[in-house]
Write a structure and sequence with these properties.
It is built from five helices and no strands. By secondary structure, it is mainly alpha-helical. The protein has one domain: 434 Repressor (Amino-terminal Domain) (Orthogonal Bundle), CATH 1.10.260. Helix 3 packs across helix 4. It is extended. About 10% of the residues are buried.
Length: about 100
C-alpha cells in the first residue's frame, strides 16, 4: 500500500463540520477525548512512580495485558476493581468529586 500524504488541517476542518452538523457526534468525540486524557494521566502517573507495565502487573497481581488494556484506548474499559488496584499501586486514589456548576459529563 503506497504512502498517502494527509492534510491535517483539511481533516480537522472536515471533522469540525461533521461535529457542527450532528451534536451526537460532537458529544461522542468529547467523551472519547475525556477517556483518552484520563488514560494518558494513568500512564504518566505510572511512569512518574517508576514502574513498567510488567512491574505494575506483578505488584497488583494483574497480568501485563490488563495493565496495557487499562492504559490503551480500546473499546474495552477497565473494571473498577482493576482501576483501584492500578491507582493504589502507584500511590494514587480514585475519588468521586462533584463538578462545578456548568460542567457536563
Amino acid at each position: 500500500m503506497p504512502f498517502v500524504e494527509s492534510n491535517a488541517r483539511q481533516e480537522e476542518m472536515e471533522l469540525q463540520a461533521l461535529m457542527d452538523s450532528d451534536p451526537a457526534i460532537s458529544k461522542h468525540i468529547a467523551e472519547f477525548d475525556k477517556e483518552y486524557e484520563f488514560r494518558q494521566k494513568l500512564v504518566e502517573a505510572r511512569k512518574e512512580a517508576g514502574f513498567t507495565q510488567k512491574e505494575l502487573g506483578m505488584l497488583t497481581g494483574l497480568d501485563a495485558r490488563a495493565i496495557s488494556r487499562t492504559e490503551s484506548n480500546t473499546d474495552i474499559s477497565p473494571n473498577l476493581r482493576t482501576l483501584i488496584k492500578y491507582v493504589n499501586a502507584i500511590g494514587y486514589k480514585l475519588e468521586v468529586v462533584k463538578q462545578d456548576e456548568g460542567c457536563s459529563a
